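Board notes (copied after class):
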Amino acid sequence: MISFLAAAATAFILIVPVELPDKTFIATLILTTKYRGLQVWLGVIAAFFVQCLVAVAFGRLINLLPHDVVKWLVVSLFVIGAIILFRSARRGDEDEAETDASPNNVRSGLRAVVASFLVLFAAEWGDLSQLLTAGLVAKGNNPYATFIGSWLGLVAVSGLAVLLGRWLLKRVRLELVRYVAAGICGALAIVTAITG
């Protein structure tokens, strides 16, 4: 049971800083300018549920490969994540400008849930959280625990975007969060390469 909880906690702790500066946060925040927050959040977390299932399945497939191939694929996934975050940190001001849109007519209902699901479902393919989740499963972490931890991390980040997004962006620069998350991915790549 401890390994299950440790795998879930690891996934959660790694997903949150990677997703805070990511398009997940920004897209959710922008969607809340068009639709009611609860309906946006329901659509977004449903999309994340499906995306996490796909990531875990991909990680399980990677895990079927020989050990050395898996090790270097996992290292590659973490390095790619670090590079993407580092490069995106430089354009943080552009992303922050996108969130300054004034609220439009607030719409609600099933339309808001479906629109939020579709936007995040399309945006998250090959996203850092998906790569990280697949990497953790390929590394040998419990797939069920990794799924739960990753999904709950995404649920938490999108909830923050709905509740605190504008307030948080006024106080914390996206570039800083992205640099920290890039450092975490880089450290994971190094640790994985060394420990295998």
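Comment from the instructor: Residues 43 and 117 are 4 Å apart (CA to CA). Residues 2-65+95-172 form one domain.
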